[in-house]
Amino acid sequence: MKKNLLLFSLLSAVCVTSAHADLVAVRVGRAETVAKGVIEHAVIFVEDGKIVTIGEDLPIERGIPVVDKPEWTVMPGLVNCYSRLGADSEGGEDMSPDVKASDELWPQAEEYAEILKYGVTTLGIYPAGNGIPGLAVAVRTKAATKAEMILQDPAYLKVIVRADSSAKKRITDGFKKADEHDEKVKKAREKFDKDKEKKGSKKEEPKKDEPKKEEKPEEKKGVAQEPAVDDPKPDEKKDESKDGFVPPAADAKSKAFVDLRAKSLRALVCLNTAAEYLHWLDALGKEDILWDLRCVMSQDSDLFYVANKKEWDLDQDGIGDKKVHVVMEPRLTLTPGTMRTRNLALEFTNSGAKVVFIPRLDNVAEHKTWLAGVGEIVGAGLKRETALYAMTLGGAEVLGVEKRVGSLEKGKDANMVFLDGDPFEATTRIQAVMLDGKFVFGDVNQ
Predict the structure, then answer these.
(1) How far apart are CA 335 and CA 5, in angstroms?
(2) Residue 9 has pLDDT above 50, yes or no
């Protein structure tokens, strides 16, 4: 009886009518969902560019088109959260937190079509420049217009840290601008409250002998009022408090730091050495913001010294203690001055950090070999599920688009990569790529 009820509920969940003409079922041998583990004999229902449902051996109602590939493995579309592909500006001054990478987007760039064939469906484009170069944007890798291309703008504020006083000054100056804005809001609030108090004191009580104003029919209690013709629509109203106070807008240079404090924006902090990490913590001080790290993996990187506070007896929290994302290349390094190999991705993961992989170089060729490169790190001891997360959901979290992409789940964008074997085996090849529910690469009819 229970089995029959379960079957009925599954059939009801995927029932198709003439109104669901875009519904399609994809049946594969294995689904690497990232968020929900592995599903064997997986069936994925896709409609209007979204995943409707996913599960093991789900029944498919007659009439629903089926892509039947039992020999394939499917995983989420790859997410590279740190790239300059398709962008060509050279950047400007050292303090440009108002510059937006989205201003230089060109949807027709050839690089996007190329990396889409290699399974990269989401890209984070950061602005060029030094110091604090500006705001990154999250995009899909195929779209007709710039507006259709953008998933999240801004995605993060890029901050470059070096172990010198000028780098610290740029950061502290940014938060000073946020202080100035906070003071401006405080004064505006005080003036608003005083003006409101004055208006309240000027209100006169109605005279006793004055005849009571007759209510119009539409003003009587219990009768719904029609809004005035010039009332703004709900989506046109300004950001204001319950009592009508509208805070002054932040200027272009301070807005990013105001948003960092409000935790409506993340910072991606780029550094190369352990000393620069400690310098960043010193510059940040007591500021409570959301931030992640972009750590460049040079051959003799010494970032393992700041992986964990307890192990290295640090005065401040290590990278793992902060539980941040660490954006890095899938590269094995050496202990400085020795030939001892280190797997920093594994060390960061064991310390509590969340590793996010990007290609070793920011060009089309490296995107082609990205999966194989991560496979080398898996062969050196990193868990498969950690590596899958590092190429998909982890990057989506850095970009702030994890509710849309990065895993195979109900309600998410149907961005998928279909392979003929394990994603990290050197002989595995990509057979097809789906973006927003449409196959954009590969022949699924063979």
Answers:
(1) 60
(2) no
Q: Which tokens go with 194? A: 């005083």
Helix extents (H) in 156-273: 165-202, 252-262
Helix (H, G, I), strand (E, B) or coil at 331: coil
Q: Locate all alpha helices (DSSP H) within 130-164, ordered by sequence.
A: 146-149
Looking up tokens 């913001």 gives 289
Rounded to whole angstroms, the Cα distance separating 260 from 253 reads 13
Say if residue 14's pLDDT is above 50. Answer: no
pTM of this prediction? 0.86
H-helix or E-strand containing 25?
Answer: strand 24-32
Q: Which of 11-15, 45-49, 184-188, 322-326 has the lowest mean pLDDT?
A: 11-15
Which of 192 and 69 is assigned the larger pLDDT?
Answer: 69
SS3 category, 266: strand
CA distances in angstroms from 427 to 262, 288, 375, 378, 423, listed in the order given:
47, 46, 11, 15, 9
Chain mean position to CA 30: 26
- In three-state secondary structure terms, 36 is coil
Domain annotation for the chain: domains and CATH numbers: 1-76+407-446 (2.30.40.10), 78-177+250-405 (3.20.20.140)
Q: For residues 352 and 75, is the Cβ–Cβ distance under 8 A?
A: no
- The length of the chain is 446
C-alpha span between 230 and 437 (Å, rounded):
42
- Structure-block tokens of residue 250: 């932040």
User: How far from 49 is each of 14, 17, 33, 46, 397, CA to CA, in Å?
Assistant: 16, 18, 17, 7, 21
Longest dimension (CA), the chain: 99
